[in-house]
Amino acid sequence: MPLDRDAAWYSSTSAGVIADNIVSFQTPTGGWGKNQDRGAPPRVPGQMYIPFDSKAGAHAASDLAGGWSFIGTLDNDATTTELSFLVRVQVGRSGADGERYRAAFLKGIRYLLQAELPSGGWPQVYPLQGGYHDALTLNDDTMIKATALLQRTAAGDGDYAFVPVTVRTAASAAVARSMATLLSTQVVIGGRRTIWAQQYDPLTLRPVGARNFEPIALATAESAAVLRFLMQQRDPSPAIRSAITDGASWFASHAIRDRVWAPASGPEGRRLIERPGAGPIWARFYDPVAQRPIFGDRDRSIQDDVNAVSLERRNGYSWFSASGVGVSDAYAKWKRREVVRS
Fold it and tell me: How far apart are CA 239 and CA 6, in angstroms?
């Protein structure tokens, strides 16, 4: 589902084929499954809304057995991407030709509004299914993408001009709750704001873990996305400015230098090795108290050294990234804009 084509392409037959697939696979509650081929034929009566296809990397069979076949998700960019595509396609299709796309979009927006937790933010799946899927989720930029989409919907500009005032008003209220939650969940350690966790308890808003190898931790990739999103806000409040400044400062002080996350080159698999001048990089997870890198494994063990993690998990998870570089670059630009604005 490309979201970067010109307006003419979204009026094309090719875009219509994708849009028809999207509409047909919209679940009864209004969301979509993840990792689906949107260029495939539309769903037919009796076909699963979220089919399992191991070659396509779709939902695991265990997920489907637990009820995923009718439950939408925001994981892996699902639902927000479908909605962003539909809103582009409907622009060049006035009248009845585009009405089914507009109707599906509005149904999807209502899904987001219904799925928002009372505290603000979204679970990974909705309707709720239990387990870590119910947690307030920042993974895969879930909360950021939902909030940004609702911001555009609430504004009602351009492609979103068809959205009824009642829906725009509800979207605006949802955005306000989400923004407040983003600010309140920035983890405070020793009286200082740091960054964010991957997920939070939906009632207490305390950080929680997810899969066995995803412990309670400060999460750099998700936090980098939150900070970039906050920097994009027009006329930021003092609270947003403080969150940005403290978050950027945390990234600057926790960079890992002279190390490289080397690709697998033999039976020992991926390893963190010394390389003078390399970096900066950041670990994916940091201990929520000591603020040092930590690494989880399938058996729920937590290691201080990534090289002590099992070979399968060491090779199969993104334990390090350069996410902080993007934060640093964006922060420098943001500070210049703030100086001009003031």
Answer: 37
